[in-house]
């Protein structure tokens, strides 16, 4: 009898161990699937971020170009205005000299 009881206990332990092993294998499989899913999501996010970064860099370059063009335009306008002011000053001096000489 004692042998049968011990045999039964061992069978139960073996069955429990097998169940535990199957549960662990299932968990491992689920974790592997989760890992793959997360890796795919991460890859997609990296692609999105890479595209967004490229778009932002392109936009920044365009804005920088526009700002440089605007700055050059303003510098050109300033130079023209300064030239105009100098010409007007010369004209004023010339007129004043002519008035003095009269």
Beta-strand fraction estimate: under 5%
**Level of helix content?**
over 70%
Q: Would you report the number of β strands?
A: 0
Largest sheet: none
Low-confidence stretches: none
Helix/strand/pairing category? mainly alpha
Compute the separation of the termini in Å: 147 Å
Total number of helical segments?
1
The dominant shape is rod-shaped
Characterize the quaternary organization of these chains: single chain
**Backbone CA Rg:** 43 Å
How much is the average pLDDT? 93
User: Element order, helices and strands?
Assistant: H
Fold topology:
Blueprint: H1 2-101
Please characterize this protein's 3D structure.
The protein is an all-alpha fold and 102 residues long. 98% of the residues lie in helices and 0% in strands. It has one helix and no strands.
Summary of the model, kept short:
The chain has 102 residues and is mostly helical.
Key phrases:
single chain, mainly alpha
């Amino acid at each position: 009898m004692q042998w049968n009881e011990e045999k039964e206990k061992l069978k139960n332990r073996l069955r429990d161990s097998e169940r535990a092993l199957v549960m662990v294998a299932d968990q491992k499989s689920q974790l592997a699937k989760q890992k793959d899913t997360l890796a795919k999501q991460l890859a997609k996010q990296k692609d999105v971020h890479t595209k967004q970064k490229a778009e932002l860099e392109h936009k920044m370059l365009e804005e920088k170009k526009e700002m440089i063009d605007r700055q050059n335009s303003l510098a050109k306008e300033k130079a023209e205005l300064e030239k105009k002011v100098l010409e007007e000053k010369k004209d004023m001096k010339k007129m004043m000299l002519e008035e003095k000489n009269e």
